[in-house]
């Protein structure tokens, strides 16, 4: 019999439920109190999570420092490029607002106006199958903001743009291996800023830390609808822009040198060519060029040679080394210009040393031996000094040591000096290797009163945020000879140019005295490890200082293995073809004490670089100057004439923007006006005929980047 009372059982259940509920409430209350006190759940900070939920940040981009020439003209600067993309799939489109290319034929017709690509090729690109989107190769890359804006105004469905920070080198080929280039790391195009640009070569690499800026950041609070919370704290870290660098390079001299080098390179296709113009009083490099080279913006040619020949390439200098040997011999008092010796051949033990004419010229004076570049004469001088003394002079002139240029991979060369034959060979430039920058440094001692100046390519650094300048002062790195010895050496070197038997007779410049030494150096065949012989398998060179009585410039040129097909010239003749126009232009351009006559209707050129195109045109509106704008960008980055330079009314002013270089309409222009465009763009123009422009091979507004050669037809009115 069941005696249980149902009522009593229900009371027990109720009591249990009551106390169970109380217990659960106590647990919940304790947990909530714990969370309120600690602010954590399962180790996660709730306050931090809430803050993260409503906190937003944005990057304040810093600029990479700009590289300028000595006069303040941009050589390398930040830019934004745009790449054209066409969306082909309708997967993301809706019928009312299509996001893909709908009318391919119309799209091709309109895009042809803005990119260097034919309608047919554009249509073929758009008609590719099984692709969701397509690009347009090089024709669709590196577009300027103006070009992007113009395309957008056509309201073409499915046409979008990818934005990429890039580096612009507005002069094209312009001391390219020295300046170098900066680029985004491979695969770093998405979400990149200017601070992601990294130096890959030259100054861009050597001073990457200075040029590279640091991005800033803004941190602020937003509500769940995306609005900034009123009175909330905004934390801002300002960006730090990279420092600007001013080179010692003079743009006008550099562009002229590049044009000469391109012309000679096309004519002779030499294995390697270098030319450097330096101020011996300060060591400042005024212009420097090499072949092969490349275009800094397009990178065309960069695959030919990565090496900076100025500092990385070592070679036997040949007879230009005799400048240093002569200075040492004069210093030691063993060079008697009127003493005689037997030319032709000299035996060092059982080994002969030959003059370049093996028969020699009989018994001649040492001064004539210098003029004729006699190896025997200089081997004798080395013996008169003693090998030990001669080695001390080579060390004092910095041979076998780097110049501490700061550029990557600078070589120091080598000096073979163990055996008597090796010791004798070094006196006339064989059996040792040097770099071009080493030789230039050594030559400054002869041209600068005995003080040897470190070659420098930077004139100053500027903090782009504060404007604070850091000047790079000229640096004396040695005094291997006295002022008197330097002057006497220059006097003797004039014999090379003005003696009827001199090897440098072809290096005379009307109106100026030149001190110079030519050179022809043998090259080792890397396969046989023996010297090449015959043909043009040599390095031809000249080192010239002018004016001889007080040099303001040194021009050092080397030409390796030129291809001379018709026999109309020699290897030394190729060097002369580079030397003559460059040295003449340098002496004329630097004026060297000559004053120019002032024009009655003179106009001082205002500074318009850094302004917008519209602002620049407004500034120049009342100057009575004829203004031409090159490029389709929105900001002026180059100008010719330079700021504060004096020109005359009605003269042509050329302004270059930060966009793609576009060909102006040159009909009726003078040759000099065309050359201004060549100078400001760094592109080579070929002229046919005389007079004024009648034809141009590149149509107006066409992209000049893609033109291998631009031919201008001139006719006399």
TrEMBL record:
Keyword presence, Cell wall biogenesis/degradation: yes
Claim: Zinc is one of the keywords in the record: no
Pfam family, one: PASTA
Main location: membrane
InterPro entries noted in UniProt: Beta-lactam/transpept, Beta-lactam/transpept-like, PASTA_dom, PBP_dimer, PBP_dimer_sf, PCN-bd_Tpept
One Gene Ontology molecular-function label: penicillin binding
Any GO BP annotation: cell division
Keywords annotated in UniProt: Antibiotic resistance, Cell cycle, Cell division, Cell membrane, Cell shape, Cell wall biogenesis/degradation, Membrane, Peptidoglycan synthesis, Repeat, Transmembrane, Transmembrane helix
Membrane topology: Single-pass membrane protein
Residue span(s) of domain PASTA: 599-659
Places the protein is found: Cell membrane
Gene Ontology CC annotations of this record: plasma membrane
Family annotation (PROSITE patterns): PASTA
Known role: A transpeptidase that forms peptide cross-links between adjacent glycan strands in cell wall peptidoglycan (PG). Part of the divisome machinery that synthesizes the septal cross wall. Beta-lactams inactivate the PBPs by acylating an essential serine residue in the active site of these proteins.
Similarity comment: Belongs to the transpeptidase family.
PANTHER family, sorted: PENICILLIN-BINDING PROTEIN 2B (PTHR30627:SF26), PEPTIDOGLYCAN D,D-TRANSPEPTIDASE (PTHR30627)
Protein name in UniProt: Penicillin-binding protein 2B
Species: Carnobacterium alterfunditum
